[in-house]
Write a structure and sequence with these properties.
Shape: globular
CATH architecture of the largest domain: 3-Layer(aba) Sandwich
Bound molecules: pyridoxal-5'-phosphate
Number of strands: 12
CATH class of the largest domain: Alpha Beta
Strand content: 15-25%
Largest sheet: 7 strands, mixed
Mean pLDDT: 96
Strand order of the largest sheet: 1-7-6-5-4-2-3
Number of helices: 13
Order of helices and strands: HHEHEHEEHEHEEHHHEHEHEEHEH
Low-confidence stretches: none
Length: about 375
């Protein structure tokens, strides 16, 4: 089955009771048993729920995996991965990381005796310097947020395999429409399904997808034992979102390209961060591992002025000033005062998060309206 068919049919069967084309929202915590243990595959909804199962099968299908797991949020999914580890274990992670992921690692799991190394992975070989006999996990995010760095998943997976280290890839920004990390050698794919998979800014959810049965069994155990599961209504919403992922992504990519090019030619704009440009440092890797370049674009203005950047985002009318990304509507954010405000100025500027940096999640509206909106806001 091709990807554009998998988004709609992958892992799905029609409801056995009435042939409902969409799985019913099984809003139930428990299931009647005819005799103790005599049930139809479902006992208690923390463990299993038919609507969630339909979604988990869809997750597995679109990422070319075998097993999918749905969680209450992207961070809950990451939390489950971290629970594969023990005190003394070490993790090598991308340095330009989603802020909440960095917080989970450094404020929760570091206190449980897990050691983290944050490494610039634009050259995969940089990882080798941090590998020890205790390294159990490599955590990769690509493209990164908000600087749009690209990491070569295949090159990292070879290093991981040579040292028998698990490789997990946060595929939230790219989505399986653009890149499929399991096919490139990753062991675990993680998603904030809150973003492009859900796609309508109406639900918070996380996902894990794996191929290996033993690894899946450990993660299912953690999912049930720790209990950060999502409800059936949210499962239904994300399943519905996935059905249009391929058409939404196609438009996100088209609009993202048009906006990156518009910004690059604007006299007030200093630099545009978008992996589709030939002068992007890892453009060749992006071209090889991604089908297209996505709908996320960051840029800076020439005067690099904090208050002017704030004025610009406030003036936007079609773009909404908000956290998050990946919905049908265009969003704009100012990392220095929003997502990265808690990081000291010198620290954030080292990774490129300067005062004038604006991050756009380009939606699927008419491109003329989006460009006109940016034009008036930059004036
Ligand atoms: C939003 C996000 C997360 C966290 O997901 P939640 O659903 O908000 O818990 C993790 N990684 C990336 C790249 C994200 O954008």
């Amino acid at each position: 089955m091709k990807f554009n068919t998998k988004t709609i049919h992958g892992g799905q069967t029609h409801d056995p009771a009435y042939g409902a084309v969409m799985p019913p929202i099984y809003q139930t915590s428990t299931y009647a048993q005819s005799t103790p243990g005599g049930h139809k595959g479902y006992e208690y909804s923390r463990t299993h729920n038919p609507t969630r199962s339909a979604l988990e099968n869809a997750f597995a299908s679109i990422e070319n995996g075998t097993y999918g797991l749905a969680f209450a949020s992207g961070l809950a999914a990451m939390d489950a991965v971290m629970k594969l580890l023990k005190p003394g274990d070490e993790v090598i992670s991308t340095n330009d990381l989603y802020g909440g992921s960095y917080r989970l690692f450094t404020k929760i799991f570091q206190d449980f005796g897990i050691k983290f190394h944050f490494v610039g992975m634009e050259k995969a070989s940089a990882i080798e310097d941090y590998v020890t006999s205790n390294t159990k996990l490599i955590w990769v995010e690509t493209p990164t947020n908000p600087m749009m760095n690209i990491i070569d998943i295949k090159a990292v997976s070879e290093i991981a395999r040579n040292h028998h280290i698990l490789l997990a890839v946060d595929n939230t920004f790219a989505t399986p429409y653009l890149q499929q990390p399991l096919d490139l050698g990753a062991d675990i794919v993680m998603h904030s399904a809150t973003k492009y998979l859900g796609g309508h800014s109406d639900v918070v959810m996380g996902a894990l997808i794996v191929k290996d049965k033993a690894l899946a069994d450990k993660l299912y155990f953690i999912q049930n034992a720790s209990g950060a599961v999502c409800g059936p209504q949210d499962s239904f919403l994300v399943l519905r979102g996935i059905k249009t992922l391929h058409v939404r992504m196609q438009r996100h990519c088209e609009n993202g390209k048009a906006i990156a090019e518009f910004l690059a030619s604007h006299p007030k704009v200093e630099k545009v961060y978008w992996p589709g440009f030939e002068n992007h440092p890892n453009h060749e890797v992006a071209k090889a591992q991604m089908k297209d370049f996505g709908g996320m674009v960051s840029f800076t203005t020439k005067n690099n002025n904090f208050s002017e950047a704030i004025k610009t985002v406030e003036k936007l009318k079609v773009f909404t000033l908000a956290e998050s990304l990946g919905g049908v509507e265009s969003l704009a954010g100012h990392p220095a005062s929003m997502t990265h405000a808690s990081i000291p100025k010198e620290e954030r500027e080292k990774t490129g998060v300067v005062d004038s940096l604006i991050r756009l999640s380009v939606g699927i509206e008419d491109i003329d309206d989006l460009i006109a909106d940016l034009k008036q806001a930059l004036e």
